[in-house]
TrEMBL record:
It catalyses: an aldehyde + NAD(+) + H2O = a carboxylate + NADH + 2 H(+). PROSITE patterns: ALDEHYDE_DEHYDR_CYS (PS00070), ALDEHYDE_DEHYDR_GLU (PS00687). This is aldehyde dehydrogenase (NAD(+)). The keyword Oxidoreductase applies. Residues 21-467 form the Aldehyde dehydrogenase domain. It comes from Aaosphaeria arxii CBS 175.79. It comes from the Eukaryota.
Length: 474
């Protein structure tokens, strides 16, 4: 097999590299410069990929679990040899600072490693009359539709459990960040049989074709609530299984006993990590009134130290917004907050134009409950704070949203903080940490933040059907 080139990109169909008459160039969001050409997959490319995945499925399903684990282990070894190449690609396509690109790339190996050693659940129940065996069988051809904020780790978060459980998988990377996903799958061809893991890059139309294809058994989608609803509607025509991990509007509740100097910078990082482009970033901060002024002051002090800039400019904490569409959306939150006269505790009410899509991290001090910045998800580095006095009232305020992806509670008294966490209506609540999803636990949302969940032992079942055999003794 010829060595992988990290400056030429292909769709991967049935283990073959495919170009296209139609090409696309993603823009480096830190500089505005165009990146490499990538092919846009055609409907024929997609149909060929589904046919190859369908053909490969019976053999892959019947491959012993230990052998599938072994191949995932070889994939880890191969990926490990190219980590620096993936860091370079990720910086170019997302603009995220090099040390944070390294964190995302560094998460791939443990993510696959953790999933590859999981046991697929089964259960046996016996009584005098019968024995009931519950096992789980793979679904078939799965489609993974990947967002642009964490293109590598969210690809592998679908690939690892799907392949371990015996499914074949087709990945569609975001057109905003196609490079790492295509290379991840190209690399896999050196390990897995043809058709087991493929990649087709393209636009929304290609995603729609994937969701309506009659031979695709499941769609795993990470992205916006609006698009997730379209995916679910399209998938309903063939009763596809769907896992939808959608937007959030996470609340952080700060209890009055916190160590202010220690916790305030952590809360800021929860809001502004990856320039706020995280589905489970902290998006509303509720601080007890007795410490509100001091806590906000510490948040402001830390925020003023945050460096924003190009991935290669030394010790930056934040990079740019990833694409112009999202940049304009985030600017709308600044414009609305300025027009309504809200207080900017830190940050600029006017976003200055530059070559890249850069925005300085911004805190809005105590906007009203019905404000855009409280009720909607900016997906950028702008966050509101509000004081609270009554714990029941602030929990109700935190839960007063159509979303429920994550949330945080901060307090010295861990048992008291856990009691608050139990009352928050969201899929993942973090006590004394900002939001840090992990492969060890299922990840999914409540309300309109999604359907189902993936990762961890429980998440494996999202790629499987229950298969129950009832054996009567006479």
């Amino acid at each position: 097999m010829s060595p992988i080139q990290f400056d030429k990109f292909y769709n991967i169909v049935n283990a073959e590299q495919r170009g296209s008459k139609e090409i696309h160039r993603n823009v480096n969001p830190a500089t505005g410069a165009e990146n490499w050409e990538v092919p846009i997959a055609s409907e024929q490319d997609l149909n060929d990929a589904v046919a190859a995945a369908k053909k490969a499925f019976p053999s892959w399903r019947d491959t012993p679990l230990e052998k599938r684990r072994e191949l995932l282990g070889k994939y880890i070894e191969l990926f490990s040899q190219h980590q620096e190449d993936f860091i370079n690609l990720l910086c170019k396509e997302t603009g995220k600072p090099r040390k944070f690109a390294a964190v995302e790339v560094g998460g791939v190996v443990p993510f696959i490693g953790y999933h590859s050693q999981l046991k697929i659940p089964d259960e046996t129940v016996e009584d005098e009359e019968k024995t009931i065996y519950t096992e789980y069988t793979p679904l078939g051809v799965c489609g993974g539709i990947i967002p642009w904020n964490f293109p590598l780790i969210l690809s592998i978060g679908k690939i690892a459990p799907a392949l371990l459980t015996g499914n074949t998988m087709i990945i569609k990377p975001s057109p905003f960040t196609p490079y790492t996903g295509l290379k991840l799958v190209e690399l896999a061809q050196q390990v897995f049989p043809p058709g087991v893991l493929q990649a087709v890059g393209g636009n929304n139309e290609l995603g729609a074709l994937l969701t309506t294809h009659p031979d695709v058994a499941k769609i795993s989608f990470t992205g916006s609530i609006a698009t997730g609803k379209k995916v679910m509607e399209a998938s309903a025509k063939t009763l596809k299984r769907v896992t939808l991990e959608l937007g959030g509007n996470d609340a952080s509740i700060i209890l009055p006993d916190v160590d202010i100097k220690k916790v305030a910078p952590e809360v800021v990082m929860g809001a502004f990590q990856n320039s706020g482009q995280v589905c489970v970033a902290t998006k509303r901060i509720y601080i007890h009134e007795s410490i509100y002024k001091e806590f906000l002051e510490e948040m402001v002090n830390f925020t003023k130290t945050i460096k924003v800039g190009n991935p290669d400019d030394g010790d930056n904490l934040l990079g740019p917004i990833q694409n112009s569409m999202q940049y304009e959306k985030v600017k709308g939150f600044f414009a609305d907050s300025k027009a309504k006269g809200y207080k900017f505790a830190v940050g600029e009410p006017d976003v200055a134009a530059s070559k890249g899509f850069f925005i300085q991290p911004t805190i809005i001090d105590n906007p009203p409950n019905d404000s855009m910045i409280i009720t909607e998800e900016p997906f950028g580095p702008i966050v509101p704070t509000q004081p609270w006095s009554d714990i029941d009232e602030v929990i109700a305020r935190a839960n007063n949203t159509n979303t429920g992806l994550g949330g945080c509670v901060w307090g010295k008294d861990v048992e008291a903080a856990k009691k608050v966490a139990k009352r928050m209506e969201a899929g993942s609540i973090f006590v004394n940490s900002y939001e840090k999803p992990t492969p060890q636990a299922i990840f999914g949302g409540h309300k309109e933040s999604g359907i189902g969940g993936e990762w961890g032992t429980t998440g494996l079942l999202a790629f499987m059907n229950a298969h129950v055999i009832h054996v009567y003794k006479s």
